[in-house]
Design a protein that fits this description.
mainly beta, globular, binds zinc ion
Length: 142
C-alpha cells in the first residue's frame, strides 16, 4: 500500500503500512531463483534474471546472524548500541539495532531468536510533525 497522507512516515522504502496503518516490511522474491531482496530491482542480484519479483510481507520472527557492539559514533548518536543482522523466517536478512540486551558480548547469546519491532525512528519528524517509523530487533521472549 502507498504511504498514507496522514500518520507516520516510513523511514526506509521497504517499510509499508497495511490498511489499518500497521507497519510491515515488504520484500521481493526472484521468480527465477527465489533470492530475496528488500527493495524492488530490475534484475536479480543473485542470478541476473529479469523475470520479475513477487512482493511479500516479511515475518517478524527470525534469528540473529551477527552483531557488533558500537561504543563510539557520530556526534549526536547515543552509544553504546548493538548493530545487528538478522534473518527472518520465510526470507530476508536486515540490519538494525538489537535492543533489550546488554552491551557486553557475554550478554548476547549467539543465534538467539529475535523479533522485528517497529519504533519511532529516534523521535524524528517531518516538517508537519509526522513521526518517522523505523525498526529494530528484540530478543524473542520464551
Ligand atoms: Zn534470481
Amino acid at each position: 500500500m502507498a504511504q498514507p497522507e496522514t500518520g507516520p512516515i516510513a523511514a526506509k522504502p521497504h517499510i509499508k503500512f497495511d490498511p489499518d496503518g500497521k507497519p510491515f516490511i515488504e520484500a521481493h522474491r526472484c521468480r527465477a531463483c527465489g533470492a530475496v531482496t528488500a527493495d524492488a530491482r530490475l534484475a536479480c542480484p543473485a542470478c541476473a534474471s529479469r523475470d520479475g519479483f513477487d512482493a511479500f510481507r516479511v515475518k517478524q520472527t527470525g534469528k540473529l546472524i551477527a552483531y557488533s557492539i558500537v561504543k563510539r559514533s557520530y556526534p549526536g548518536i547515543a552509544t553504546p548500541f548493538v548493530s545487528a543482522i538478522a534473518a527472518f523466517d520465510g526470507g530476508l536478512a536486515l540490519k538494525a539495532n538489537l535492543v533489550g540486551v546488554g552491551f557486553e558480548p557475554e550478554a548476547i547469546a549467539p543465534n538467539i531468536e529475535v523479533r522485528l519491532t517497529f519504533n519511532e525512528a529516534l523521535g524524528r519528524t517531518d516538517a508537519e510533525g509526522r513521526a518517522y517509523v523505523g525498526y529494530q530487533f528484540e530478543p524473542q521472549k520464551s
